[in-house]
Amino acid sequence: MVRVLAYCHRYGWFAIILAAGRLLDFRLALGAGLMGYAVWTLLGYGLKWRHIYCSFQNAYHRPMTPDRVDWKWIRKSDVYVIAGACAVMGALMMGIWLFPEWKGSIRISMGK
User: N or C: which terminal CB in the chain sees fewer CB atoms within 10 Å?
Assistant: First the structure.
C-alpha cells in the first residue's frame, strides 16, 4: 500500500490536475493541484510519512524500501525548493484565476 501511495504522490497529481482541469477552469485546477502537492509534500516530510520517503526514492531512481526508512539521505533542499516552487506557481495560477485582469499585466522580460 505504501508503494501505491508513493506512486500516487509522484505521478497521480498530474492525472488529478488534468481531470479537474476538464471539469473546472484549468488555471484553478492547476493552481489548487500545485498548492495541494506542496502542502502534502511538506506535511508528509514533516510527519515522516513512509510513502513520501518512497516517492523521493522513486525520484532518485532507487528501489523503494518502505520497511527501511532513513530520512537523512533525502536532501532538505529538494523537499523545500520543489514544494516551495510548486506553492509559488500554484499561488500565481490561483491569483490569475481570481483576478483575470492580471493576465494582461504580467510580462516576463527576456533581456530586452
Answer: C
**CB proximity list for 66: less than 8 A, separation 6 or greater:** 2, 3, 6, 50, 51, 53, 54
Q: What is the pLDDT of residues 39-94, one digit of tens each?
A: 999 999 999 999 988 898 988 888 988 888 888 888 999 899 999 999 999 999 99
pLDDT at residue 109 is higher than 60 = no
| Cα within 13 Å of Cα(18), Cβ side | 5
Q: How far apart are CA 69 and CA 51, in angstroms?
A: 10
Q: What are phi and psi of 47, to 5 degrees?
A: -90, 0
